[in-house]
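Input/output pair, single chain:
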Amino acid sequence: MNPTRLFVGNLSYRTMENDLHEYFSQVGVVTSVNVMFDRVTGKSRGFAFVEFATPEEAARAVEQLHNREFQGRTLTVNIARPREERASRSSGARQERGERSERSDRGERGGRSYR
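Output:
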């Protein structure tokens, strides 16, 4: 776990990185800000990561800014946890040859009808 990296949640979908940089700079030296965007729509996902120069500044930001209002929303500010491993979204494409899955009865086209 990186003690200088913060998770910032419940953001307005209009919040931009420069808004967060300016707001969090009142607590300490901000080294980076990353607002998370949806890959498909390009819209904000409503959370970001803010990194400080020191763990002390990050802890002070959590203490002072958690549950404070920013752009009409009550912020969630915590030390960021490491990203959890997520299961693959594939549908079993890595099966051994000759092995059948529940979907294999649909033919080579994966159950889509092209008639």
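The mean pLDDT is 85. Helices lie at 17-24, 55-65.
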